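Ticket #4471: structure export looks truncated?
Reporter: QA, pipeline team
Priority: medium

Steps to reproduce: submit the single chain below to the structure queue and open the exported record.
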Amino acid sequence: MKVIWTFILLTVFLWSSVASAEYCNIGSGDKETSCIYKINRIPKNTQIIISYTQQGWSMLIVVFLDDFAMIEGDAQVKTKNGETQSIEYVSTRRDMTGNRMMEAALYLVSEQQLHELGRAKGKIRFYLAATGSKKDVEVEVASSNFEDIDAYISETKTLLGDLFKDQ
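Actual output as written to the record:
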């Protein structure tokens, strides 16, 4: 009888972590889990999407522009009281949406950088290298948009634990 109750409690515990997932979606198959941290409340129709890949943490910064900017190259991140840091550029996807140009630049970021964004105060500025225009594209984000990043990292590591074993 003790074994049965232990099994039931273990099942409830394991199921509750999946059921209470805030950032991760679990598909019907065992390998269909995706964990995404999405920031939509940014001025000028900009989005930031953070996820974890086998190469590490990634940050997709999507901007909608009137002109073609060709966002390519490493970006700079500056917090109100912090130093400027560089994030590594991976690729850019471009598309037309209505009469605006969408550029979605993908960057690799470290877990430490994500934690720093979560601890930042004030505004966070991303300077995206634009080769098709005279100046970089600036994206300004309220630091409060990153206040739950630690919870996202923890949930991602819990549900995608096998990916983190080799680190």
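Status: closed, not a bug. The export was complete when the record was re-opened. Leaving a note from the reviewer for reference: The chain has a mean pLDDT of 81.
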